[in-house]
Amino acid sequence: QPDQALQLSSEIDKNSEFYVDGLALRALIGADTKDSEKIEAARDSLVGIDEPNAKVWITVIDRLMLSDSVTAAELRPILIEGLETEPQNLYFRYALALVYRDLGEPELAASLLTPLVRSQPAWWGAALELTNLFERSNSLGSAYQIIEQTYQLHPSVNAVRLRWAVLKSALLPASDPETARETLESIDQFAP
What average pLDDT does the chain have? Predict the structure, then answer.
């Protein structure tokens, strides 16, 4: 919920290691809700903070959120620099994975998302993205493994439930009708 996220991000202590990312989160929420005033206010609050990740966030906000158009190829070096500056920054890792996906480099995208999904299982959006990458590369077993774990944590999230049901049905054993029937019943039980 954008309002809750805004409230939480405003409560982050200025001395916290998450302070800069919390300010950037306000810009991401603004972008998600198409509120340019929130984006600009978040950007302005980052100006003057003498931390490398603040400078990267300002560049990302300027190029991605306040620009009319930006290409994945233009974002790649910015996000690589951000990760080199702050290797543990999950947001830069996720954004770079999406850039690699958009550039047609799914293996690089998956290599960034896999450790992120393992370390942050509550981030179901990242897990869905990794599931989609595996599915597109015809690694249905890997895709199902990720979505099954995510479904166990987030059974009420419709996007997760849908991907889980689709992949579970895609992996139905054709030679075992009893297992197929049980699987279909389990999918039917959790229909929204």
Answer: 80
